[in-house]
Amino acid sequence: DAGITQSPRHKVTETGTPVTLRCHQTENHRYMYWYRQDPGHGLRLIHYSYGVKDTDKGEVSDGYSVSRSKTEDFLLTLESATSSQTSVYFCATTSGGLETQYFGPGTRLLVL
Amino acid sequence: DQQVKQNSPSLSVQEGRISILNCDYTNSMFDYFLWYKKYPAEGPTFLISISSIKDKNEDGRFTVFLNKSAKHLSLHIVPSQPGDSAVYFCAASGSNYQLIWGAGTKLIIKP
Predict the structure, then answer these.
(1) Chain A residues touching B4 at Cβ < 8 A
(2) Other CB atoms closer than 10 Å to residue A85's CB: what's the count?
(3) DSSP class of residue B84?
(4) Tens digit of pLDDT for each residue in A87-106?
(5) Which pLDDT score is estimated for A104?
(6) Distance, CA of B61 to CA of B44 (rounded, Å)
(7) A106 with B103: Cβ contact below 8 A
(8) What residues of A are in contact with residue B91 (Cβ under 8 Å)?
(9) Partner residue facing A99 (CB), from B44, B45, B49
(10) What is the pLDDT of residue A39?
(11) Residue B5: is its pLDDT beyond 70?
(12) Which of A34, A84, B32, B57 has the fewest CB within 10 Å, making it most exposed?
């Protein structure tokens, strides 16, 4: 398994506040992804990165931004959290050329 | 518009019997399919995959079958064990190394 950590693991915040989630990997994987998981929807892609400073939108990117200034770190920011962003967020990585993605343990976010 | 569908939210199987999890897709351009397993409070972990040029791939107790004409794949677990109780996700490879995911099927193995 790729060494993928996510921080924080749990967070409670209030509507309208900014929130940043961090994904850190030690495998030097080129591709990194942020997903959200909600009941009945499986995993939905928010944003992904195909290299340092190279990012693109996924299926559900509205209200989210990302940054990747180093290979090992991929940050997901909720500029102004809303209750609809209450979810479990997963980071994943892949070395590229392989479809197998390796996942972090997840961050459970509750927006009140 | 769900391109990958897992129509059974849950499945209960007796220990030692076969578990069959199903997945349907709509996009004929998908060329690679994967199954992931997820335990509570953990991230999904890769289980088994299959390329669209094959119709079967086997790894120990796990076998995935692909029927391209029906746009259907299935995961067989034989024999089922208590540790197999988890949520199973089917995923298909689209473009740009993106995966399209099904909603998952919760498998419960009864002792």
Answers:
(1) 42
(2) 20
(3) G
(4) 999 999 988 765 688 999 99
(5) 96
(6) 19
(7) no
(8) 43
(9) B49
(10) 85
(11) yes
(12) A84
B97: chain A residues, CB-CB within 8 Å: 31, 48, 50, 94, 96, 99
Nearest-CB residue to A43 (from B46, B49, B101): B101
Contact B97 A99 (CB under 8 A): yes
- Rounded average pLDDT over A10-15: 97
DSSP letter (8 states) at residue A60 = T
pLDDT score of B7 more than 60: yes
Question: Does A2 have pLDDT greater than 70?
Answer: no
Q: Do A106 and B41 touch (CB under 8 A)?
A: yes
Residue B1 has pLDDT above 70, yes or no: no
Burial of B19 (C-beta count, 10 Å sphere; 0-12/13-18/19+): buried
Judge whether B1 is closer than 8 Å to chain A, CB to CB: no
Which of A52, A106, A46 has its CA nearest to residue A77?
A: A46
Amino acid code (one letter) for A81: A
Contacts A105 to B, Cβ<8 Å: 41-43
> For position B98, what pLDDT does the model report?
82
Residues A11 and A21: their CA atoms lie apart, in Å, by 9
Half-sphere exposure of A77 (CA within 13 A, CB side): 9
Question: CB-side exposure of A38: number of CA atoms within 13 Å?
Answer: 13
Phi-psi region of A106 (alpha: psi -120 to 50; beta: other; left: phi over 0): left
